[in-house]
Amino acid sequence: MGGHMRAVAGVVAAGLLTLAAGTSAWAQDVPAEYQAVMTALGKGGDFKDRVLKVNIPRADLKVTIAGRPAPTPLGFGGWIALTKSTGGMDVMMGDLVLTEDEVNPVMSAVLDNGLDVTALHNHFFHEQPRIFYMHVHGMGSPAELTRRITPAIDLIDQAMKRNTSAASGAPAPTPAAAALNTEALARIVGAPGEQSGPVFKITIGRADLDVREHGAAINARMGLNTWAAFTGTDADAMVAGDVAMLDHEVTPVLKALRGRGIEVVAIHHHMTGVQPGVVFLHYYGTGQAASLAQGVKAAVDLLGRKQP
User: Is the predicted pLDDT of residue 176 greater than 70, yes or no?
Assistant: First the structure.
C-alpha cells in the first residue's frame, strides 16, 4: 500500500487569500467563465485538474487550540470548487469555515438560494473561538452557482470585516515560526507537501477511487483527499488533518491513529449522493514532528487495501 500512496501526486489545498486583481499573470490559463466567478466573488483561486478552486481563508480568526495559537493554514481555509459534469453543467462543492454564531445565518443563505448543505461538523477540540465547517453543494452554470453562493460568502466577508476591525486595537497571539524538517516529514508520510506560511501541508488524493457525480470526477481538488498539516518545531509540533476512507477502512485507521497517541476529533461524511460513499475522519496531535508523521503514515498505509 505504501508504494501506491507514494505514487499518488500530492495535490495541496490552496493557501492564504490571493486578491482577484493579482490573478492576471495566470488568467490565460483559467476559462473565462471561471475567471468571472473569481471576479464576481472578489476572491483568488486557481484552475487545475479541470477544477476551479476559490479560496475563502479565515485569516480574521485568531484561533487557539488548548491555548496554543494555531495559524490559518493549519485548517481554517474555506473554499468552493467547481468542475464540469457530463451534461455541461457544473458541480459545486465547498467547505465554509464559520464561528458558531455564523453557522445558521450562513446555512439559511445557502438553503434560501437553492443550494444544499451536506455536512456540518467540528475539526478540533478545545479551540477558541469555536469553529465549525459547513459543506455545501450545488448544480448549475458557473454564473448561476456564483449568484447562489454569493449571499453566504457576503455574510462571511462581513464577519471578517467586523472581526478585523474589533481586533485592530489589540495584538493577537502569533504562532511561532515553523522550524520543521519538511523533507523528513514528506519522506516519512510518503508524499510531497507544500509550505504555506508556518504550515507544511501534505495532501494525498484517492486515485484508487472513481467517485463521480453526474459524470463529474470528484477528485482531490473537489475535496476527496487525505491531508496532514504540520506546524511548530521538530521537537514540539502540532498536526491536524483529515482521512478519506471507505467504510471498511474506518476502524483500522482509528486504531492506527489512537495507537500512536493522535486524537480523533470527528467522524462524518462531507458529500451526499456520491458512490462509493466516503467517510472522513479528522484528527489532531501534538508532540515530536517525526512521531506525528509516523502516526499519519500508519493511517495512510491502510487506505486502498482490499476489503477482507
Answer: no
